[in-house]
Design goal:
RNA Polymerase Alpha Subunit, Chain A, domain 2, four-stranded mixed beta sheet, 2 helices
């Protein structure tokens, strides 16, 4: 077992340590943690105009403390437009189990969206008022 300081209380005047709270971690008991997900590489679909979108920024996992990763890296280089990586597709380190729904989308490449210009918007030009200038010239 290993004890790690959880909270340290200091005396307001002088700054001396008044009290320390410890967390005891049993290295043989699985823990639950939230680990950040980090995409690696350039998706093939982004080269053809697609947009890489990360839907899940962190993953809930369960593992022994010795197996706890700092980040979960996801290679996105093989993703084309319309393709996705789900939780069930992740390559997790040995001993690490994902607790999130297996069908949850982690990263996908979306097709580019182009807003179509409506004919009314294209035809709408600013109105030029010429009558006022003619009236001002008479004065």
């Amino acid at each position: 077992m290993q004890a790690n300081p959880k909270k340290i209380h200091f005396i307001a005047i002088g700054g001396s340590v008044m009290h320390v709270d410890f967390n005891e971690v049993d290295m043989n008991v699985a823990i639950r943690a939230v680990i950040p997900v980090e995409p690696v590489g350039e998706a093939a679909g982004t080269k053809t105009g697609g947009v890489l979108e990360q839907s899940l920024r962190s993953l809930h996992v369960e593992c022994l403390p010795k197996d706890l990763p700092e980040t979960i890296t996801v290679d996105v280089s093989a993703l084309n437009v319309g393709e996705a990586i789900h939780v069930k597709d992740l390559q997790l380190p040995e001993g690490v189990v994902a607790l999130d729904d297996a069908d949850l989308t982690v990263i996908h490449v979306a097709a580019p969206t182009v807003a179509a210009e409506t004919p009314a918007a294209a035809a709408a030009a600013p109105e030029v008022i010429k009558e006022k200038k003619a009236e001002e010239a008479k004065k």
